[in-house]
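Page 47, continued from p. 46.
Same chain as before, 309 aa.
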Amino acid sequence: MYKSFFGLSALPFRASPDPRFLCMSPQIREAMACLQYGIAARSGFVVMTGEVGTGKTTLLKTVLNTFVKDRVSSAFVFNPRLDLLDFLEFVLTDFGIPPKTRTKSGMLLQLNHWLIDRFREGGLCVIVVDEAQNLSWDLLEEIRLLTNLETSSEKLLQIVLSGQPELEEKLNNPCVRQLRQRVSVWCKTHPLAGDQTQAYVAERLRIAGAKEPVFAADAIEYIHAYSNGIPRLVNLICEHALISAYVEQIKPIPLRIIESVCVDLNLDQRPFVISSLATSGLQEATLPSAFSNTFTPIADLPYPLKDSE
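Result:
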């Protein structure tokens, strides 16, 4: 609706986790490198935590896309509120394996045979569990046992658990200490600092084709103040502001429109509060004036990444 008015070729602030719009801040680069290494090195469990709306799902999808598809097979579990049989059926189906039975032993045998075949072909297999803080204790233990699928020297299956800070609290529970001991790589996502929010908005607009400023400088400051640097809320405010400015046929978008949008979204009544776990790990970082939208893969990964375009 507003693309032609602002000279855009795409919608820059959609809620869907589009890897095209992943902005490479230093924190995102670090988390991305950790995920790539943890998956490629057959290190068993990899855990990523972060506050709601800080880009975990987008980052996961981007990382999976960096690997050469014929070498890395993945199953992406986006709803972990499953019992074991449903979980195994979902994983097999997402790997492209038609389940031959609905029994636990039958599906585990089928998965094991397929993993061995992939290992002989030089492939790597990874299960990604998003929103992993919602996993039941029983399913969490069953997932731990999946890492027992291994050869004498290598793990056959990599598992990435991604979730909100509650996942970290859950993994600190003594009843899952065996799983925690198997976690070889930990990484986090964080809210954006003020200058990062400005660069984040500018980068998404650049990717969407913007050739001139879309927001006034003081409008960006207000966006950061009422989003607390949470990218999902930044997107929400910016999307509504673009629509409102299009209706009024005004650009660049002034502060008063941002204020009006925040009132409509009740962000001025209920400022977003992040958890103590997130704030304790938040570090103020200074960024360049714009993010780089390309990622240079870390060296010496045992599995190839896609060539940079």
